[in-house]
Amino acid sequence: MTWKTTFLFMVLATLVVILVGWLTSIGILPISQMINYSDAGLRFIRVWILLAIAIGLIVPTITFVIWFKYPEIRKIFGFYLLVLIIQIVTEEIVSRVWLPSLVVIIGTLYTAFRVWQLWHEQQFIKSTDFVERGNFRIISSVLWLLLLFWSSNLIMLLTLSWPSIL
To answer: What is the per-residue pLDDT for 85?
Structure first.
């Protein structure tokens, strides 16, 4: 992962969100301006957000701090956390200022990028010898946990969140 790739993704994602938001606000796209979850869907989302905080934010932050002395691991989790923080800030600003339903589009774009990012980093650590075997297994396990969680998040977005805005 590089600064160029990360920055390019964030610029493209922002442009897509602006375009979708504009087309939605002028009535061209049939996307609801609000997210219309059922009561059960809303309860599920609340639990899912807690899981996302625990698995998607706390675990990689701890990993980043513990293995900070390894530049490659610091880079992997640094870019991961940067993209996650930018996503959270973008979702907060867009949902408060413009259209709450754009959170689904933002979440989908960033989650798809995150899955690719994690897969790419998993392949990278397999092909290098920059950490000891014990640390490799831990880092690999954390990456697989994150990959599994964010892949599940993508499925959840497509099956629960998208139908609530279409």
So the answer is: 96
